[in-house]
Design brief:
Elements (H helix, E strand, L loop, with lengths): L4 E5 L5 H11 L4 E5 L3 H7 L14 H8 L4 E4 L2 H7 L2 E4 L19 H13 L4 E5 L7 H12 L5 E5 L9 H6 L4 E5 L4 H14 L8 E5 H32 L3 H9 L20 H14 L3 H28 L8 E5 L14 H11 L3 E5 L5 H11 L4 H7 E3 L3 H5 L4 E4 L4 H4 L3 H6 L6 E4 L6 H7 L2 E4 L3
Parallel strand pairs: 1-2, 1-4, 2-3, 4-5, 5-6, 7-8, 9-10, 9-12, 10-11, 12-13, 13-14
Helix pairs in contact: 1-3, 5-6, 9-11, 9-12, 11-12, 12-13
Bound molecules: uridine-5'-diphosphate-xylopyranose (UDX) (2 copies).
């Protein structure tokens, strides 16, 4: 089977970049990305391609090349479903905030709505692909909805989890370590569907890097990959606290162990804690699944990764208060960075949010500079916590557009995101305009200790 029309439901951080790259690499396939959020679709269609709603290095160029050629963004979900041979579901699956599994299980409400909509609209056979990260065996639920509410057409369900990391999405999509496709590989129809998707990726990914498995292995592999990555960060972060006590330097430890080829050097950077939309959600998901099978030791083992991460964020905030003579009330604290990592405007689960919340509870005033995150987003993140009134958030938190404006007259500066531009800052200049003694808390280990001490900062970095 040759795919001619692809539809993707969800024009977010995953759906948008993934479809842009598929369209760029497969000019003979029409790719339509749909979303219920009109504002988001309008931004994807903005005449000025720099205004697309997601910031990713290299993405605007890919969109510029393919948009209106074979890449389209639309709010007409029904029309796109109707036309497509292959439908990707890439809607968000946040952690449930209500009912059974609250705070742990994934909320599959949007996935189910998509399935029902596909079933209602589809008039010919379709391949439906889970792109969203989902609990193991979600495909079964999808299949049941599609088969029981559809118009008698046939659906094949595939799992094709996305491994791109934000900030390097385009690079990761163009040159992935592997592409994983799970399907009903025991039947001919299932194999045909798998092959159709393999053929799409084979436009640019070497065949031996395209793995095919059964659906459940594919679903579980995605959760496992994120859990393992997050575990490495929590492991090194746990050692960062011990380094601070013993005089070891976590960067040196990290380098020394990373050169062991069995361990490897990646994902060993100590930080104020991991963030992003996936790690916490996926581990909670794994914990919830384990618990639901009565596997309490398995659940506890993985939950500890989250506990360590929460501890690291809290510890960083506590250290600021303690160092500033046990009070930050009425003190101005500058935040450099708000995004959960560099090169993205995504702030979901960013450590900065939790550090800010802690300091605001201590009545600090916070002034924030981030090169890509909007003021509107920062207030939305704080309001979402529900810790204090919206008025209070706006009174205590200011958002500015240069690092100097953030740090001027501040008691302390905290680096929360590792943006490259922070390494290039004139720290001498910043120091001069701060209140003395001036404190620098480096939550991302981006600064060289010696030069900061030479300038005069009271310098505190995670793990040193
Ligand atoms: C993705 C995955 O889907 C998630 O499971 C994974 O764990 C992280 O990455 P992401 O692309 O980052 O999510 O989410 P988001 O940027 O929120 O995009 C989802 C889009 O789906 C939103 O634009 C939303 O408006 C849209 N949506 C949601 C629909 O179009 N229909 C719905 O019913 C629900
Ligand atoms: C992650 C996975 O890497 C990706 O494969 C999956 O598809 C989605 O989830 P993402 O959340 O975009 O991607 O970013 P990632 O680069 O994994 O970083 C997650 C968090 O861990 C960030 O807050 C980052 O700053 C932090 N981190 C990462 C560290 O603190 N130290 C490290 O060494 C690496």
């Amino acid at each position: 089977m040759k795919v001619k029309n692809i539809c993707c439901i969800g024009a977010g951080y995953v759906g948008g970049p993934t479809m842009a790259v598929i369209a760029q690499k497969c000019p003979e396939i029409n790719v339509t990305v749909v979303d219920i959020n009109e504002k988001r679709i309008a931004a994807w269609n903005d005449e000025n391609v720099e205004n697309i709603p997601i910031y990713e290095p290299g993405l605007s160029a890919v969109v510029a090349e393919a948009r209106d050629r074979n890449l389209f963004f639309s709010t007409d979900v029904d029309a796109a479903i109707d036309k497509a041979d292959m439908i990707f579901i890439s809607v968000n699956t946040p952690t449930k905030t209500y009912g059974i599994g609250k705070g742990m299980a994934a909320d599959l409400k949007y996935i189910e709505l998509c399935a029902r909509q596909i079933a209602r609209v589809a008039k010919d056979d379709k391949i439906v692909i889970e792109k969203s990260t989902l609990p193991v065996r979600t495909a079964e639920a999808l299949k049941s909805i599609l088969d029981n509410t559809g118009n008698g057409v046939k659906f094949q369900i595939l799992s094709n989890p996305e491994f791109l990391a934000e900030g390097t999405a385009v690079e990761d999509l163009l040159d992935p370590d592997r592409v994983l496709i799970g399907g009903d590989i025991d039947t001919t129809e299932g194999m045909d569907a798998v092959q159709a998707l393999v053929d799409v990726y084979a436009h640019w990914v070497p065949k031996d890097q395209i793995l095919t498995t059964n659906v459940w292995s594919s679903e579980l592999s995605k959760l496992t990959a994120n859990a393992f990555l997050a575990q490495r960060v929590s492991s090194i972060n746990s050692l960062s606290e011990l380094c601070e006590k013993t005089g070891a330097d976590v960067n040196e430890v990290s380098r020394a162990i990373g050169m062991d080829s069995r361990i490897g050097s990646k994902f060993l950077k100590s930080s104020v804690g991991f963030g992003g939309s996936c790690f916490q959600k996926d581990i909670l998901n794994l914990v919830y699944i384990a618990k639901s099978f009565g596997l309490n030791e398995v659940a506890d083992y993985w939950e500890q990764v989250i506990i360590m991460n929460d501890h690291q964020k809290k510890r960083f905030a506590e250290n600021i208060v303690k160092t500033l003579f046990n009070t930050v009330s009425g003190k101005k604290i500058a935040f450099l960075g708000w995004a959960f990592k560099k090169d993205t405007n995504d702030t979901r689960e960013s450590a900065a949010i939790y550090v800010a919340d802690y300091l605001l509870n201590e009545q600090a005033e916070i002034v924030i500079y981030d090169p890509k995150v909007t003021e509107e987003q920062i207030y939305a993140d704080l309001d979402y916590l529900g810790t204090r009134s919206e008025e209070k958030n706006r009174k205590l938190v200011k958002v500015v557009d240069t690092p100097v404006n953030a740090t001027e007259g501040a008691h302390a500066v905290a680096v929360l995101t590792e943006w490259d531009e922070f390494k290039e800052l004139d720290w001498n200049e910043i120091y001069k305009k701060m209140l003395k003694p001036a404190f620098l808390f480096d939550g991302r280990k981006i600064l060289d200790r010696k030069s900061k001490e030479a300038i005069g900062f009271d310098f505190y970095a995670i793990g040193s």
